[in-house]
User: Fold Cupin type-2 domain-containing protein from Pararobbsia alpina.
Amino acid sequence: MNSTRKELITIGSLSMRFLVDGRDTAGHMAMAEMVVQPLAKVPPPHRHVDVDETIQVLEGSLTYRVDDCVRVLNAGDYCFSPRGSVHHFSNPGDVPARALVVFSPANIGPDYFREVAGVLGAGGPPNMDMMKSVMERHGLELAS
Assistant:
């Protein structure tokens, strides 16, 4: 149980360490610690087809957009992104932001982030067809 707990998955200026994944919860939920480096603008605006996401900032702050609502989340603040909503976040500050992220159900987990890291870390410009394929397999869509 919790075999992913020690693995740090880094994608550019964002890193994820899953504390609980779908294998631990029969697919009901996954929870990760996320660190977003200063001045990061990740990920691009997107939606989850069938996954709700809740984030709580532990340190630093994030600018978080859900549909047309934009908020600055500071330590202790949280935000819920219901499935289907377009959301995006960034760290415009000068210190890393650390947050807990919960995905329910656990359709988005360490496998998704590993695959994204593989596509974006392949060298050269990102292969957007491969990126979209990874996203689709895990129930994510880029916002238009």
In short: The first helix runs from residue 110 to 120. Residues 9-142 form a domain with the Jelly Rolls fold (CATH 2.60.120.10). The chain is about 15% helix and 40% strand. The chain has one domain: 9-142.
